[in-house]
Structures are given as structure tokens and as C-alpha cells.
Amino acid sequence: MPTNSLLIRNIHTLVLMDAENQVLRGGYIYAENGAIRRVGSGAARLPKADRVIDGRHCIALPGLVNTHHHLYQTLTRAYAPAADAKLFDWLRTLYPIWARLDEECVEVAALAGMAELLLSGCTTTSDHHYLFPRGRCNLIDAQIAAARRIGMRFHPTRGSMSVGRSQGGLPPDSVVQSEERILQDCERLIGKYHNAAPGSMLRLALAPCSPFSVSPELMRSSADLARRHGVRLHTHLAETRDEDAYCLSRFGKRPLDLLEDVGWLCGDTWLAHGIYFNRGEVKRLGRAGVGIAHCPTSNMRLGSGFAPVAALRRAGCPVGLGVDGSASNDSSHMLAEARQALLLQRVRYGAGALAVGEALRMATVEGARCLGRDDIGSLEPGKRADVAMFDLRGAGYSGAGDPVSALLLCAPAQVDTLVVEGRVVVEGGSLETISLESILRRHRRLAARLHSEPRPHAPDDRCVTMER
């Protein structure tokens, strides 16, 4: 019997998300050393394994993939002064609070946000951390430490802001960095952490924040650096009409034209939001193979609009889902995000605009494509053993005729069992890797302090990078 082997058998409904969209009854998954070796159904003779899970009451599908987040924002959920603001006003209100972040805040915020994601069936998350208060240089390192501790597959993106308010940007100068400092730290993080191997638990990307907080020169330099090291690129784009107006006023061009000018209109790029693209721009994005992280709840919460998902997918863009920041979504529940995406498209375009299966593909296969991965997103031999299992006996599913449809049409549930890289990280609805109660106590304490106590910072962006 191989070591590090896992068998999930008697699965009530097994959703493979393969090219044929197969759904198996009475299915099984067998994995060794984090990789799936066999899937199937029926009375086949099954291999012995170190760990056996009975799935007779569960629907199982690939672990969900979150393509856009700001984990630090779990510390500022439902912040009352920003509760009814649109994006630019929301940012101006929260920037002074976020300027008090330190490494402890970021690590605990990441643990809380990742716990919420895992409990919703998400096994892989990206994060876009772009805010570095003066003297705070190890914030990405803190997030990585959290991901390793909790056992989540992680795609941190080294975000950046270099154009503060004094230079015509939106953020205060206290949270921006020099472009030299940004690029040095990007190179440090890639060299220290990025792992491009199949099955990798950690891959880096570079992510200048937005057209209203970075210069075109930093966008070009980031693209050059990313391509030298073989990492992907990520940014916010076309999120609001205010962004359109800013780009036209400052650069004399629309956001997508700016993106193309700086060398980002390529298949190694994925963009958050993508609401205000016109028809010609959608075609250009599709031809280039640019990915889109659709964030329906955040877009609705801020009154920003919503992405033309069907048109982008038809054009050839992989469209994944993102919960976005927990101060604009106020939640990190990936199953809820897939449901929101489904309903939002139907409100605008009718009941046939997006099928349940298509929304689930966005949450799995297409999300994986946005992150440049072909080893996750479906349950097939050779893929990684990332599996989300939901118990169909819950009150919210009672009476449901089709378990697959129930995942999104019924109330979003918490996961019963979650497997990441062949390791059980949630069992019986409880996290197995950390003490969630103690993390949440620290999280609440830090959130209260962040809201009420200004904290001192170094006078400039000099810092000493610490080994963790």
C-alpha cells in the first residue's frame, strides 16, 4: 500500500469538471502523494489507502479557485463610514485605517480569510496585496507564513502603489513606495518563494494596483521583471466609470489602451473586474487570452456595475471568480460568489444567460486557467487531489432533486470535507490545521485596535527585510 494515499469512495454525486462535464453516481477518487491516480464509479475493485473517506451522503467537486482577494481587509469588514460609498470614496475613507497595518495584522487577517475560504470549499486562493505602510516590508512574507500554516494552495501577488496623492494619484503618500523599492522586493520574493513545479502550493505574481496608483513606467518594468522570471501579471482594470474618466484625463486614453501600451495585453495577464469594456475591447482581450477575475458581490456592493461575462467567455477569455476584498464584499465564501455570479447574469440577460454548470466551471477550471494552472480545477488522473465535499443531508438541501443544481440554487453551505493536495484540512465542517477560535480572538482584538489606535511608522520607506 503506497504511503500518503487517500481513497474517497461511495460518493453520492461526483462532479469531475472534465472536458465532457461528467457527473458520476457512486463514484470514487484515489490519490497518492497529492496527485489523483484513479477516478470512476461502480463496483470496481478499489485500492487500499492510508486514509479512506466514505462519501455516500456528499456531492464532491474540484476545490474552488479564488482569483482575486485582499485578505488584509478582513480586519475592516462592514466599516460604517464606508458602508454606502462608491469605490473612490470608499478607498479614501479606508486608506488611513489600512495605513496602520503591520506584519501581525496581515498574517492574522490572512489566516481568518483563508479559514473562511476553506470552509466554503475553496482550496486555492490568490491575493492582491498592494498596500505597504512606511517601514512595513514583510507583509507578503506574513501572508505566505499563514498559507503554509493553514494548508492552503496560495498565489500571492506582490502588489504595489507608487503614485500617491501628492503626484496626482488616489492613495495617501504614507502607503506608497518608490519604484526602485517595489522592484527590488518583487525580485526578492520571486527568488525566495516562487515554485513553478506541477502541484506547487505557492506561486508568485506581480500586481501593480491600478491606473490611479501606479505609473506606466512601473507597469512596464513589472512586466519585464515578471517575464524574465516566468511569473504572471495581475491588476485592477475597468472597474468603474471614475477610472475611465481618470485615465482619459491623465493619460488621454482608455484603460485597456493604457494596458496595451505598457505591454500587458497578453495571455500571462489576468485582470480584476473588467466591467467597462466595450465590444471591440472584449474582442481584443479574447484574442490575447487575457483572464478576468469576475467579482460580482463586491461590484454590486460598491454599485460599480458588472462584467459582461458571457461576451468575455465567448471571445476566448478565461473568466474566473473572485470574492474580492473583505471590506467590499464583507465575506469570503466562494460558493456564495458562484451563486451571485449566476443570478447577476440572469438578472441582466435572462435565465439562459449562465447555466449552473457554467458558473461552477468559472469557480474551478476557468479560475485555474486565470492563474496559469492546468494541474487543478478538475478531478482527473494526473491532476492534484483538491476536493470539496458538501453534505447533502443539510436542511438547506432537503428536497433538492438535482445535487449539482442545489449547490448554487439553494442557500450556500459550508463544506463538510475538504482535501488540499491529498491532505484533509476540513473534516466534519471543522478546520483540522489551526485552532480557529484562537485565531479569531486575535483577529477581533487586532481589528478593534486598528480602528481605534493610530500607530507610528518609520519616516520613509526604508526597511530591513527580516527572514521568517
How would you describe the overall organization of this protein?
With 468 residues, the chain is an alpha/beta fold. It folds into two domains: 5-62 and 379-429, Urease, subunit C, domain 1, CATH 2.30.40; 64-370, Alpha-Beta Barrel (TIM Barrel), CATH 3.20.20.140. It has helices spanning 87-98, 103-119, 139-150, 179-193, 216-229, 241-250, 255-261, 279-288, 296-301, 309-315, 334-349, 356-363, 365-370, 403-409, 436-452, and strands spanning 5-15, 23-32, 35-41, 51-54, 58-62, 64-66, 122-129, 153-160, 205-208, 232-237, 269-273, 291-294, 319-321, 387-391, 417-420, 423-427, 430-431. Strands 1, 2, 3, 4, 5, 14, 15, 16 and 17 form a nine-stranded mixed β-sheet that branches. Strands 6-7-8-9-10-11-12-13 form an eight-stranded parallel β-sheet. The chain starts with a strand and ends in a 16-residue tail after the last helix. Mean pLDDT is 94; it is low at 455-461 and 464-468.
Produce the secondary structure layout:
Elements: E1 5-15, E2 23-32, E3 35-41, E4 51-54, E5 58-62, E6 64-66, H1 87-98, H2 103-119, E7 122-129, H3 139-150, E8 153-160, H4 179-193, E9 205-208, H5 216-229, E10 232-237, H6 241-250, H7 255-261, E11 269-273, H8 279-288, E12 291-294, H9 296-301, H10 309-315, E13 319-321, H11 334-349, H12 356-363, H13 365-370, E14 387-391, H14 403-409, E15 417-420, E16 423-427, E17 430-431, H15 436-452
Helix pairs in contact: 2-3, 2-15, 4-5, 8-10, 11-12
